[in-house]
Amino acid sequence: MTLSPRELAQLVDHTLLAPTASIADVAALAQEAAALGTYSICVSPSMLPLPFAPTVKVATVVGFPSGKHTTAIKAAEAAEAVEHGADEVDMVIDIGALKAGDVAFTEAEISAVRAAVPSPTVLKVIIEAAALTDDEIVAACRASEAAGADYVKTSTGFHPAGGASTHAVALMRATVGDRLGVKASGGIRDWDAAQAMVDAGASRLGLSGTATVLAGGTSAGY
C-alpha cells in the first residue's frame, strides 16, 4: 500500500528521547508534530506533565532503554506517566529474561504494567527484536498479547544489535494478526524505509527525523 506523506504522518510517533532534551526541545517537537500532522509525540517520562497542551497524543517510555528495571518500578513509572498526561506507554521488557526462556516472567511484567495503566491507555511492548531469534520474537509477541498489550514494538533505537527490520515486522504481524498493532522504530531514516515497514505490516512508526522522512530525504535520527 503506497501512502501519501499525510497518510504516513498519521502513523508516526514523532520521537525525542535524547538524554540531553529540554522542555524547550519538547515544545518544539510538539509544534512540529502539529504542523506535520503526526499521530503523537513520544517523549521521556521526566518531561511530563507538559507545561503546554499538545494538539496530538502524548506517548512516553517505561523501563527505557535497558528494560532492566523491576516489574514494580515499571508499573509505577507507567502509572505516574499516565497521571501526568501520557495517552500511550511504550514499555521495554527484560530482554535477558526472555532470552533465558522465562516467557512466563515476560508475560507477568507486561500484565503488571497493563494493570497499572488499563484501557483506554495504549500499551506498546518493546521487544528489542534485533537482539532476538525468530522463535524469541514469536514468544515475546504471544506473551504481549496474552498480557493484554495493544501493540508490539520492534526496538528502543538504543540497542547495539540494531533497530527495526522488515523481517521482524513481518514476523510480528504474522504472529499477532490483526489483533494487535505493530510499531516499527529504530533506524527508519528515509521514505523508502518507512514505506517498507508499512508494507511489512507496521501500523505505527517511531521516527525522530520525521520532517526529513516525509519530505523524501534521509535523516540521521532515531
UniProtKB/TrEMBL annotation:
Reactions accelerated catalytically: 2-deoxy-D-ribose 5-phosphate = D-glyceraldehyde 3-phosphate + acetaldehyde
GO-annotated biological processes: 2-deoxyribose 1-phosphate catabolic process; carbohydrate catabolic process; deoxyribonucleotide catabolic process
EC number: 4.1.2.4
Molecular function terms from GO: deoxyribose-phosphate aldolase activity
CDD domains according to UniProt: DeoC
Ion transport in keyword set: no
One GO CC term on file: cytoplasm
Any Pfam family: DeoC
Known pathway: Carbohydrate degradation; 2-deoxy-D-ribose 1-phosphate degradation; D-glyceraldehyde 3-phosphate and acetaldehyde from 2-deoxy-alpha-D-ribose 1-phosphate: step 2/2
Class of enzymatic activity (EC top level): lyase
Subcellular location field: Cytoplasm
Protein keywords: Cytoplasm, Lyase, Schiff base
Active site (UniProt): 90 (proton donor/acceptor), 153 (schiff-base intermediate with acetaldehyde), 183 (proton donor/acceptor)
SUPFAM superfamilies with a match to the protein in the record: Aldolase
Role of this protein: Catalyzes a reversible aldol reaction between acetaldehyde and D-glyceraldehyde 3-phosphate to generate 2-deoxy-D-ribose 5-phosphate.
Protein family (similarity comment): Belongs to the DeoC/FbaB aldolase family. DeoC type 1 subfamily.
HAMAP family: DeoC_type1
Protein name (record): Deoxyribose-phosphate aldolase
